[in-house]
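[job 0412] stage=fold_complex status=start
inputs:
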Amino acid sequence: MSSEVILPGDPIPLDSLIDNLEDSDLAPVIQLGPGILHIPPETLLPVRAGTLTKLTQSKPQESVTVYVDTAGGRYVPAVHDTILGTVIGRFGDQEKSFYRVSIPGSAAPIGILSSAAFANAASRHTRPNLSTGATVYARISAFSLALGEPELECFDEKTGKEGGFGELKGGMLADVSIGLARRLLVPSGVYGGSAVVEVLGQLVPFEIAVGRNGRIWIDSESCKMTVAIIKAIQETKEFPKEQMEERVQKIIKDARQ
Amino acid sequence: MPRDLTPSTIENTFVLKALTERIRLDSRSFNQLRDLDISFSSTDYGVVDVKLGRTRVIARISAEITQPYADRPYDGLFIISTEISPMAAPTFEAGRKSEDELVISRIIEKSIRRSGALDTEALCIISGEKCWAVRADVHFLDHDGGLMDAACIAVSAGLLHFRRPDITIVGVGSRREVIVHPITERVPVPLAVLHVPICVTFSFFDVRKASAAIAGLPGKDNMKEADDDDVEEENDSSTAVLVDATLQEELLRHGFMSVTANTNREICQIQKGGDMPVEVGKLLSCSEAAIMVAEKVTKLIKKRLKEDEARRNVGNLLVEARAENDR
Amino acid sequence: MTVLDITRPSPASAITSFLYRVDGSASWKVGTAHIIASVSGPIEVNKRDELPDVATLEIVVRPDVGVTSTREQFLQDRIRRAVAPVIALELHPRTLIQVVVQIVQSGDTKILNTISLSACINATYMALLDAGVPLRSTVSATSIVYYTAATSDASKTKVLVDPTRAQLEQIEKDISSAHTIAYELKGGKIERLLLSDSVGSFTEDQVFECYDTAANICEETNRTMREAVTKCVQQKSRWREA
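[job 0412] stage=fold_complex status=done
writing structure:
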């Protein structure tokens, strides 16, 4: 793993990537992440400013993943992403109806959520009835900027069960940068993840939902604690781990008084 | 051109519930202003940068010589321009005035121009022929609520900071001419600022709606059962009054009142909006609070002005030059 | 070719990511000029401005004093010419990239636009960078002013790079020409000329001379940009430390 700040147009020599790989009989595999365009035959062009991050991996195959990591910018929807949105309207008839869901902070501001796209929605009677203003935790099931609105679903795509998706009740929403949202969703132990949720979890019981569109939802024992948890997450987003732990502990301790 | 943020039910309920526990999301107390920072341009006079929390406004005062209006030959001109660009927030459209924008420009106009903060008669050079036209251009850079409060502070501070070039009138009768002395040659002249209006916006929340939402009971029915004396008491605690709301609080509030006051304990302007009635008692307590904020803010403006003057006045040259001018 | 007498005041300074409601922001100060630019995008586009295969680029320039005039229209057009070629607009079709350029202090005299134009281009580019809008390379611009200085023996052509307003006012009557030059750079090296905007009277030699001078200055400006961006990125990724 190496990291350096890179600007658009800076050269990325292929050798510098392949050198990271140990000798192998197989042809080297380079995976391109966000922020890098491939211009055939073998030019790699960074298209935004950020930290050039290279991650090597030996399983299932020797490969190197390279991407430009950024903290800010606007969220552009992508399939499989989870988002937090607000229902702003409904159209269609009794049999087949759809919700219009606003996705704050997104390049495509309105998503479409079918009332049948929920777990247990096979029958009309078990479908949820969402009112305007309701907050949903949903997954983007289909999208392309050229084609228009993202399609949303509120069930786990692997199991078909609820899996935490659907309407959220109680708690509070807050804005975070899309970089932080991404880091909060990285599984613990994997490079680039944020440990703030773990640290908080050891101090106070709470629930969290993270939308890739830069929104989080928090619920805890009291208003005061929820406000403190949001503050802890927002304030420590740039902190190195030790400093973050210290600050989070202080904020939670203050909220307890 | 994205739509305005639509607050969700969750945010609405939570903010109201927190207010019943006297908690604001940024941990401020109800009558506490956000961090206020005022700074002046190091080169030009009358350029002020105001940061009120995350809200940021730059005001620029300028002056040029022009002809007065025919019906007001003894008055100079004073114009305040408050166009909001998408820089403040992408929800504002360039070149088109939204309703919010109209309210903001009206309040600033009433607070500063119509309250007579600037003595326009002092801008007259030759009656009916030549006068100064003073212009305040307000640039909204970042919008996190309280745009008018920040703009009002910026324009007021700008008027105090601004210096126009000195002038001399030569000749007599119809052959009178105005000579403008560049500020590099002669010490420029401050404007005749009569008072410093400061606008303070109060946001009202009907917290009864919160308890109703939490308990799942219609709030008004509860009220009817209480007898008259209790109603008044209830009323007092049923409205949360917040000073200097953030954008989120602005989007969720049930009513607002902007009070412009100065350190002479004068109210220059009151504007009430939203569909919540305000009692007389609230009006008086808000006015009193506005005066206190105005005193605090004016003190900060004066402090920053002094610091700026000290920075410009290296070697005490300005004071000497001014003494000569006064004679 | 005569040896040029080039004067350059204090170098430029840049700050990025200081506005919260927009996706990217930058402040650019050079000479007496101070420009703030913001970028929102990709965002929803008005149906009538929508383009099927690329993003729509909207640039709004707001004057420091007074209402928008032909001067701002001119700046808008030139900024577009300088930055549009490096934006990968095809990656975000049917969306809007909205740029707002606020002139805080123009740094120009009444008859020139040169200084504000180069500062606007630099500020705009930095804001695009900060917003994470896909870009193919970097852009840097500079302004160069030629004037004749009457010395004791003979008049001599002198050059000012990114001058302050006080400097301009001093030589206002002797200005022979003013040039704004924007280059595309890759990895800090000049790649191609993006914009060359000149007013006044000048010789062919002077133009080419100007391009050479600008190339050096733009590489320096580009380093200033890189430093500002690096500082900002490092600040935001302090979490990487151990």
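[job 0412] summary: The radius of gyration of chain B is 23 Å.
[job 0412] exit 0
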